[in-house]
């Protein structure tokens, strides 16, 4: 497949690029500054300057965009709106590296993980911003999107086990009562979804066994 990875310089982006290349896909890094990933091709351009033409010809566009300072948090919504708008009405699939805070606490799908009393206060603004981005994405009915939430503990340098648990909208724990996944195993889950395409217009979640 021809895969474009937006924000390929980030840690999640680099892991996804590496996994895609290992599986023989053709990968283009879409980055604002000098490419740090292993991608064969590079388009150096700000996300918000990307055009429909820039994304033409790809089977899949992945965004690993992240914003963390308070003034940039709204970009979790505006970035998804911009990219989804460019892909609207096309056959190109759009996969999003999401967050865990917007996962629901139970099947009623009312309260989210970030609403839980023990959710760290310092992460609530980020979680809420990412949840708003997901809600904006859900409104794009003519986009083949998939939003993939990682486990609560998203481990940068964690082990690559090659295994994971696939879950849905509800926050899930493994048999050890943990919610954790390495960037490497998350990338495996992302590429499995890219190759299999079983969750179009759905949010799914993944965690380590």
TrEMBL record:
It holds the Pfam family NAD_binding_10. Residues 8-192 form the NAD(P)-binding domain. InterPro entries: NAD(P)-bd_dom, NAD(P)-bd_dom_sf, Polyketide_Oxido-like. It comes from the Bacteria. Gene3D superfamilies: NAD(P)-binding Rossmann-like Domain (3.40.50.720). This is NADH-flavin reductase. It comes from Streptococcus oricebi.
């Amino acid at each position: 497949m021809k895969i474009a990875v937006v924000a390929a310089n980030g840690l999640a982006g680099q892991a996804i690029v590496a996994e895609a290349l290992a599986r023989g896909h053709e990968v283009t890094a879409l980055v604002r500054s000098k490419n740090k990933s292993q991608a064969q091709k590079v388009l150096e351009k700000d996300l918000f300057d990307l055009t429909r033409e820039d994304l033409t010809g790809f089977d899949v566009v992945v965004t690993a965009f992240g914003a963390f300072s308070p003034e940039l948090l709204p970009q979790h919504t505006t970035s998804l709106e911009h990219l989804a708008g460019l892909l609207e009405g096309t056959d190109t699939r759009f996969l999003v590296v999401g967050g865990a805070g917007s996962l629901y606490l139970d099947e009623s799908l009312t309260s989210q993980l970030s609403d839980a009393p023990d959710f760290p206060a310092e992460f609530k603004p980020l979680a809420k911003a990412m949840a708003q981005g997901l809600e904006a994405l859900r409104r794009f009915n003519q986009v083949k999107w998939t939003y993939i939430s990682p486990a609560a503990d998203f481990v940068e340098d964690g082990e690559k086990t090659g295994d994971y648990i696939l879950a849905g909208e509800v926050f899930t724990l493994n048999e050890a009562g943990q919610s954790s996944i390495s960037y490497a195993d998350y990338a495996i889950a992302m590429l499995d979804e890219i190759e299999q395409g079983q969750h179009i217009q759905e949010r799914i979640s993944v965690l380590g066994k």
